[in-house]
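Batch manifest line 546
LIGAND: flavin-adenine dinucleotide
JOB: complex structure
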Amino acid sequence: MTSAATPDSFNQSPPFEDIDLFAIDRPLVEAVAFNEGSSAFVAHSNFGRLWGSAEMAQRGRLANENPPVLTTVDASGSRIDRVEFHPAYHELMTHSIDAGVHNSSWSAEGKPAGGASEVVRAARFYMAAQVETGHLCPITMTRAAVAALASQPDVLAQVMPILASTNYDPNFAPWSAKRGMTIGMGMTEKQGGTDVRSNTTRAVRDGDAYRITGHKWFMSAPMCDAFLVLAQTDGGLSCFFMPRFRPDGSVNGIEFQRLKDKLGNRSNASSEVEFRDAYALRVGDEGKGIRTIIQMVQLTRQDCAIASAGLMRSGLAHALHHARHRTVFQKHLADQPLMQSVLADMAVHVEACTALVMRLCNAFDRAPGEASEAAYMRLLTPAVKYWICKSAPGFLYEAMECLGGNGYVEDSILARHYREAPVNAIWEGSGNVMCLDVLRALSREGDAAVTVLQTLMTETRGLPGATQAASFAIKTMLQPDSERVARQAVEVLAMLAAAAALNIVHPAHAELFARTRLDSVQRRMYGAAEFSFAESRGLLDRALPS
Ligand SMILES: Cc1cc2nc3c(=O)[nH]c(=O)nc-3n(C[C@H](O)[C@H](O)[C@H](O)COP(=O)(O)OP(=O)(O)OC[C@H]3O[C@@H](n4cnc5c(N)ncnc54)[C@H](O)[C@@H]3O)c2cc1C
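JOB STATUS: finished
ARTIFACT:
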């Protein structure tokens, strides 16, 4: 409706919807291809069209505007501990699970699916993250849980027939009676998240099972069918499979205290929870809880990086789309030299992040058979999570600003992306913890890690600043007080790996990335890097077809 005071709107960008999130993203298409995932192109495009549709955008919006609600007791005062989600959340879950984003990197028996299954799955995770990231929390935890369950083959064999299905079944019922299942994770307690050794939750043996009593300060996706939980035993900190129902069909002793009121990630429920004699099965040996659950965390860290890269891709695409439609001073924003510098600088960052996450996923694919890829995966997973996830909030702020005031209001997806971005850097090991993990990998697997660094040097030979960056990273990580300067070293290591990954996909853009990131004093603002007009055009045309 218009009035004399409010004319028909003009010079506003049209909605960026009903697009194929795969086909329009050349950096993604090529990163997937160069990392051996091209066999799934048709399926990726189908997925890209579905997730790029106006309907999915609407579902993402609704799921976040109508956050989950916890009901602890029923009308008669009996505990029920249920969390209700908006139908849009269930629809997002249905589509992600239908495409196997929660399990496709595993065989039906819970072994690595082989081929390029990690890269193929990552491409879908990357696209889904551009639309709605909250629901990806149970999706990532479910697929990652299989790696920890591998330590307890009898439990894995029981759950795989249900977990391997592509049905989403939100019914509140024992997992064994369902058409599909999801799995969450409970590690963090009030007195320590990073320092899980300080966990006080206690597990006591009861026949073949255990009874667990204690609390978790954060336990997301509480309507999962089971959780992998850490608790102390006589043998030390151990990992457990804790289902929502006991084997006799009664509801397990899992009582949710409240849901967190979060900055973002609003479609996802994150609970505070108490366990009261909760039934659980042990996963792995007593005392080996950290070693067991780290198998899961390695995979959720990988997904944090993929999701942050996806969020930044979405920010860039929205910014570029807007700048190509919006006219300021008789010229499209995209043709204003200073805006072009900002967008091109952002485009080279996203292109490098995308190439890097796909290269990392390729290492996950090849690690079971190639020691050098296993070493790449071990050393670089924390570095990639650190660098990509920490860059996302600042990047999304910049993308938001490209839309001017429209970027700041809730009609645009950028406000939601901006709120969402920090969590990937915080959970699954916060920034400092990732840096310390890189140092740990270097000290424990020194020779293999040094070989990874030497390979990165070979793969970046000739790129501006690469040799100096590599020697800086090695020297800094090996110096006696390396903890103090670990952030500098890990950032450079990740950027070196990004340059190497991009050099395989698009050498000219790897050169631009290296010139502006490795070969110069680090500039913190997008748009401060210097590109020629032709270089900017090359980056932007590739980022989003005009
Ligand atoms: C939305 C949300 C959902 C979550 N869902 C779950 C869940 O489902 N399950 C679960 O188990 N947890 C969950 N968490 C918890 C999350 O994993 C932890 O918050 C995170 O691991 C950090 O732990 P912490 O909060 O105890 O902080 P701390 O461990 O106290 O860390 C605080 C800061 O200190 C830094 N730090 C820690 N150790 C060192 C060191 N040695 N040197 C230097 N710096 C250090 C960290 O990097 C961090 O910046 C969730 C968190 C959020 C925000």
